């Protein structure tokens, strides 16, 4: 188990190097997908390497001339990477331009600064009523598939697609198993380790990741841990599109809290919902996208409340509080947050919100907030 | 000695305020008369109008709030009720107004609207969906959502047109029929389009007077005249307004009266991004003393620049085509569409420089702006600057910073003229 | 050994309060934090001990709070300034439900339940807008002493708006208002109101519940306190020494731990 965790920590310490190496080893082209909704099973089925684009950990440099300071962390980091020439290993890029306004501007910038040989724009629809939404999602995915076929010169058969979906489903199932064990014994992994485990799935080949997970799970199942009863159980929520700074996760734990489960994008949201393998593969992928839960504010859902989902997760895990993590300048999350907050107030839930910036200048301020939160829950 | 520049004010534009005030006053009192009320975002209100509903429009309301000076207090209510300051100020404005009514917080009564029977939420940008979702969750308002993607590549246009047209037919029309309890009024939609066609045709004739050197009027004059091609759509008073405006501009041209005294502009500028509704005067005072005027922009050119394409005989089809056909209105939101459009504008209106207004709370055009300046500078050799601010929120505006950027633009234009 | 000490190491000032076994204040100390928080805390503790005529050996528990709470070497424990302000405020004004604390470099609003415990809070510590530092910069832009500024407010007879939230931009705005010939008093009032407008939003987020106490160094500025009271529509309670509310709360928690 320790060996696997060390390997994952090394991989996530330098995703750029890892993906470049992977590309060389496998002799396959790399296609970057902007998070969070691109069904990259289709890229996998095209015998290419799909990777979910990440927020790098370096401060923005040359990118300042290309991106306003009031854009979110992954936007700023991604543009900075692009203009600094760090994304040369990506042969292609895919953007779902309807996710948020910032995502909509990437194709232009990437075309100018990275010039990937393949670039695709998807217009996945909001989850609105009417058959037209599902039909259109399928149209989009068909177009996506065709464009990849044109890029590689090879047909993607339903059989290819189903095989890839199976591998992806297996990965989701294994990640779910990791979370299940963590729910039983939350002390077994550090929060940063859990995030690294999920994050590595986003840019490793799923079959490689599945091997790691299988070994990891064996170790986790065998390991006994001493329950730390005095720890305050909390559920972190949000942090859409990007990794949370590991320092913040460490801080949460250092302050006497423990995370038995989460509602983070690089967390349980990523592997939620399997793809049904009964019908047409594209239809099944469309249906996974069109699933209303976990509630995602980028999808235009209001029939279910994100707050209810978070509260349920909190209660299911005997947790005592909810920590909303909002990526600073993430409009979809910011627009939803007042409703989430009022739901917490109405239900009398201990809840707090912290804002995460790409370059943390205020870790001390986050510490004060989180420590006060612990004091409120602990009744100091 | 330095030239003292001064605005030559148009007479006709004084007539817009009563029309606009009447629109909002009618809306405020609609329920008393038993009329149905809709709120709308994106180009969707025409369906409510066709059914005789009184209708608010997201950006129109925001412009109006900014214009009557109610923006700051309403935004404050939004902040108090949990909205984060970086959230779209149009979103915050609506939430603030709704919360002020719900909680009995005192705000300018002119800024208060009746809660709608139906919220027609065109998701042109995701924020337009977010605020509709919020209204539904907080005030249980019925929402009719429509997804209206902007086009990134013209080859995507046909399938997006089909997607949107199907929503009009399969979702929008049946829903407004149900809410209003009567069949959809295609004839009324045709009438509205007939009036719109006339107004937009007249408006295009007025645009010609931006081309003259010196120009006869400014983009700001057009900014305050936008309602007749938008939320006053279908109102014949719009035709009369633009007829008079056209007459006045013709007279100006004949008499040689420029937009700014004494002899007209020194710098002819393009304005990118939203119009800064609450700060039109503030910006005017930064342009005029330097002999600068704005003449055209991406946003103000979205309002049906091709009236010849409006076909009132086929109202629903033409509405889809205006946005996703030759009219290509949504295409102007994509960086490529932007470059194409601005290129046309630079050529047509003899532009000397670009002012890229970057709203700190709306990210629809910001990210590509540095790249757009670069592309156009290489193509036409004209400079551009980014000016940061907001449509409504005074907390996002820094006078000193804006002045420095604009002065830098004037200096760049000067140095290239030498 | 029943002596309890609370030390509040803020960004601008360090405050110490000493309580006896009966929770009576024996002494307190306020000094500039400087750049060396660690040294400031020890120095402030020594000053307060000296005033009270006590020695270190007499002390049962030292609790640190404030921005530099982690840097107090002699502290036995640490609690955030949020919790401490709430406890201190409740001790001074038992019916308090809202604390507005504006310190040197941050501002916060704290909601307090009927049991005297924190229910919720908001903080602005991202920028200096509306804080003590902000006032210092504004005072220097107006070329007045920071102490004079609070009184200057009451000589105002005209509304002047200072709209910028950012300290840097507000400074240039103040300079330009000055250049336009506005009176110092009116500008000072405009500055006070700009702080008040910021605070109103924060109070709204927490939910205004009376009574309301204002603490922190800025509470000593009568103009600002008046402007905030006017904006939120209630009179603010202000302690005789508003800067030590956090340290007092820390001392109370310290005494519970002896």
Characterise this structure.
The complex is a heterotrimer of chains A (380), B (418) and C (258). Helices cover 51% and strands 11% of the residues of chain A. Chain A has helices spanning 2-13, 15-26, 41-45, 73-83, 106-113, 131-152, 158-184, 191-203, 206-222, 246-254, 265-271, 281-289, 306-316, 331-346, 363-378; strands at residues 30-33, 49-52, 92-96, 118-122, 232-238, 257-258, 263-264, 321-327, 351-356. In chain A, strand 8, helix 14 (331-346) and strand 9 (351-356) form a beta-alpha-beta unit. Chain B is globular and about 65 Å long. Chain B has 418 residues and is α/β, with parallel strands linked by helices. Chain B has a domain at 14-176. With 258 residues, chain C is of the alpha/beta class. Chain C has two domains: 1-93 and 240-258, 2-Layer Sandwich (Nucleotidyltransferase, domain 5); 95-238, 2-Layer Sandwich (Nucleotidyltransferase, domain 5). Helices cover 40% and strands 22% of the residues of chain C. In chain C, the strands form two sheets. Chain C has a five-stranded mixed β-sheet. A five-stranded mixed β-sheet of chain C has the order 8-7-6-9-10. The chains are: A alpha/beta (380), B alpha/beta (418), C alpha/beta (258).
Topology:
The complex is a heterotrimer of chains A (380), B (418) and C (258).
Chain A: H1 2-13, H2 15-26, E1 30-33, H3 41-45, E2 49-52, H4 73-83, E3 92-96, H5 106-113, E4 118-122, H6 131-152, H7 158-184, H8 191-203, H9 206-222, E5 232-238, H10 246-254, E6 257-258, E7 263-264, H11 265-271, H12 281-289, H13 306-316, E8 321-327, H14 331-346, E9 351-356, H15 363-378
Parallel strand pairs in A: 1-2, 1-3, 3-4, 5-6, 5-7, 5-8, 8-9
Helix pairs in contact in A: 1-8, 4-5, 6-12, 7-9, 8-11, 10-15, 13-14
Chain B: E1 6-7, H1 16-29, E2 37-41, H2 45-50, E3 54-57, H3 58-67, H4 71-80, H5 89-103, E4 118-123, H6 126-139, E5 143-147, H7 157-180, H8 186-211, H9 219-224, H10 237-255, E6 260-261, E7 267-272, H11 280-287, E8 292-297, H12 315-324, H13 335-349, E9 353-359, H14 369-380, E10 384-389, H15 399-417
Chain C: E1 3-9, E2 13-19, E3 25-32, H1 37-52, E4 59-65, E5 77-78, H2 81-92, E6 98-102, E7 107-112, E8 118-124, H3 132-141, H4 146-152, H5 167-179, H6 184-206, E9 212-215, H7 222-232, E10 236-238, H8 245-256
Parallel strand pairs in C: 1-4, 4-5, 6-9, 9-10
Antiparallel strand pairs in C: 1-2, 2-3, 6-7, 7-8
Helix pairs in contact in C: 2-8, 3-5, 6-7
